[in-house]
Amino acid sequence: MSQTEGGGVSYTRADAGYFEKRHLQRYAGIWSLWALGVGAVISGHFSGWNFGFATGGWGGMLVAGAIIGIMYIGLVFCIAEMSPALPHTGAAYSFGRTAMGPWGGFITGLCENVEYVVTPAVIVTFITAYVNSIFGFDPAYSPIIWIVTYLIFLGLNIFGVALSFRVTLIVTLLSLAVLIIFWISAIPNMDFSRWALNIAPDGSELPEGNGSFFPMGFSGVLATLPFAVWLFLAIEQLPLAAEESVDPKRDMPKGILLGMLTLVISAFMIVLLNPSVAGVGAHKLGTSLEPLLDGFRAVYGDVGVTVLGIMALTGLIASFHTILFAQGRQIYSLSRAGYFPSALSITHSTYRTPHVAMIVGAIVGLLIMLAIWFALGAEKGGSIIGSVLLNMAVFGAMFSYILQAISFILLRKNQPHINRPYKSPLGIGGAVVTIVIALVTLYYQVQDPLFSKGVLWVGVWFVLAIIYFALVGRHKLILSPEEEFAMEHRAKA
User: Fold this and answer.
1) What is the rounded CA–CA span in Å between residue 490 and residue 493?
2) What's the CATH code of the domain at 342?
3) H or E stretch including 312?
4) 41-65 average pLDDT score
5) Is the distance from CB of 262 to CB of 256 less than 8 angstroms?
6) What is the pLDDT of residues 168-225, one digit of tens each?
C-alpha cells in the first residue's frame, strides 16, 4: 500500500491475475478510429441540430455551428496531442489524472461518464420516435423498443472488438451514403431565399421567404449554440479506444483529425441544404423531430416512405452503437483504476470486451428513462424525456471539455518532458478558446427551462459518486497503467 502525492488516496499494486481478467484486444487502425469518431456524432446530422432554427434562424444556426466547430477543433487538437502522449483507455480521466491529480482525474471522468451513459438514452428515444412513425407503433410501448434496441447493440458490442469495429465502419459508411444521397437529391430542388430564409424576427413563418439571415440578431446566434453542439458531440470519444488501437501513437491523431474534417464538411452541407429544399424550410425544421426524413419526403413524396425512414435511421443507429462502445470503455477505465467498483472492469473471458461495464451503463441509462417515463406518465414523459436527457448529456460534455482543455494547458506548462508524438499547432491558445466557448454555451443552455431538470439529476449523480469516492473509492485505487504513468511523470515535473 502506498500514498500518493496528495488528496488522501491510497493504492494497491494488483497482481498479474487482476489485469488478465481486464485485458483488451488490439484491433483498430486509422479507418476504424475514423469510423468510431464519425459514427458517434453522425446522428446529430440526422436530428437534434435543427431546433436551432427556432432560436436563431438560418444565419444564426450557421454562425453558431461555426463557433461550436471552432470549439471542437480546439478540443480535438488538444486531444490529438494528449492521446498519443498518454495512450490509455482512460482518455479524459487519464488526461485529468496526469495533469491535476486523482481528484481532478475523477471529476473529469465523472463529467464524461454522465455524457456517455446518458447520450445513448437520448439517441434511443430518437430511434424509437422514428420506428413508431415508420411502422405506426403505439408510443405507449416505447419502453419495449428501448430495451430491444439496447439488447441488440449490446450484443454486437460484447461479441468481439473486431465485430464491433466492423459494424461501426459499415453503419458509419451507410450513414454518410444516406447523407450524400440527400445532398445530391436536394441540390436540384433547393430554393435558398424562399425556404431557408422564411423565419420572421418574432419566430413566425414568412410565406414568401426572403427574410433576414439573422432574424433574431446576434442574441439568436448565442441562443443557438447548445443546439449546434449536436453537430459534433462525442467526436472526443476516440481516445477511449487507445488500448484497442494497433498503433495509437501514430493512428489516434490521424483518426480524430480526419473524423473532424469529415464532420465539418457534413455539418455545412446539411445546414445549407436541408432547410433549402422546396416545401421544407427553416421554420418547419425548427420543430421537426425528423428533419432528414422531411427533406426526403419533400423530394420524393410519400412513395417509399418506409424505405426512406429506414435509411434515415442509419445515422441514429451508428451513433447509438459507437457511443455504447465508448460508454463501456469509459466505465471500464475508471473501474480498473478503482475509482468505480473494480468488478465493473472485468472483461469477457472469450471476447475480451468490457461486457460488465457496458451492461451496467445500459441499465443505468434505461432506469433513468423509465423513472422519467413512469413518474410523469407515458404521454407527458415521452414528450420531454429526450429534452431532459439531452440537457444532462450536454451539461456533462461541456464540463468535460473545459477540464480536458485545462488538462492540456497544465500538461504543456508543468510537464513539458512528456514525449509528444504529435503537437497541436494551436497550442495553449486553442485550449483557451475551447474553454471560453464551452462556458458561453453553458450560460445559454441555462435559458432552456428543461435545463434545470437535467442539471438537478446530474447534481444528484455527482453527489452520490463523490460521496462514494470520498468514503470508499479513494482508499481502493489500483496502480493501473494510467495511474502509474501519472505518478511517474508527476514525480519528474
Assistant:
1) 5
2) 1.20.1740.10
3) helix 305-336
4) 93
5) no
6) 899 999 999 999 999 999 999 999 999 999 999 999 999 999 999 999 999 999 999 9
pTM as predicted: 0.91
Amino acid at 269: M
Nearest to 309 by CA among 334, 290, 333, 331: 290
pLDDT at 2 over 70: no
C-alpha 142/C-alpha 373 separation (Å) is: 10
> How many domains does the chain divide into?
1
Closest to 150 measured CA to CA, from 321, 342, 330, 36:
321
Residue 16: CB atoms within 10 A of its CB come to: 7
Q: Considering only CA atoms, which of 342, 343, 473, 340 is closest in space to residue 8?
A: 473
Residues paired with residue 99 on neighbouring β-strands, in sequence order: none
Query: Do residues 298 and 304 touch, judged by C-beta distance below 8 A?
Result: no
Q: Which residues of 395-433 are buried (b: 16+ CB within 10 A; e: fewer)?
A: bbbbbbbbbbbbbbbbbbeebeebebebebebeeebbbb
Angle between helices 53-85 and 217-228 (to 10 degrees): 50
Per-residue confidence (pLDDT) for residue 457, from 0 to 100: 79
Q: For Cα atoms 174, 181, 195, give the angle at the middle one, nearest 5 degrees.
A: 130
Question: What whole-number distance in Å separates Cα of residue 266 and Cα of residue 408?
Answer: 28
C-alpha distances out from residue 16 to 71, 338, 483, Å? 41, 16, 16
- Strands 477-478 and 10-12, sheet pairing: parallel
Give the model's confidence band at 383: pLDDT under 50 very low, under 70 low, under 90 confident, else very high.
low
Torsion of CA 308, 312, 318, 324, to 10 degrees: -120
Q: What is the DSSP letter of 277?
A: B
DSSP code string of 177-215: HHHHHHHHHHGGGB-IIIIIT-B-TTS-B-TT----S-T
Cell reading at 360: 451496467
Sheet-wide strand order for 477-478: 2-3, 10-12, 477-478
CB atoms within 10 A of CB 47: 24
Q: Measured between alpha carbons, how far is 196 from 273 in angstroms, rounded to an integer?
A: 9
State which residues form the domain around 187.
2-492
Cell numbers that stand for 218 in this block = 446576434
Report the DSSP beta bridge partners of residue 245: 28
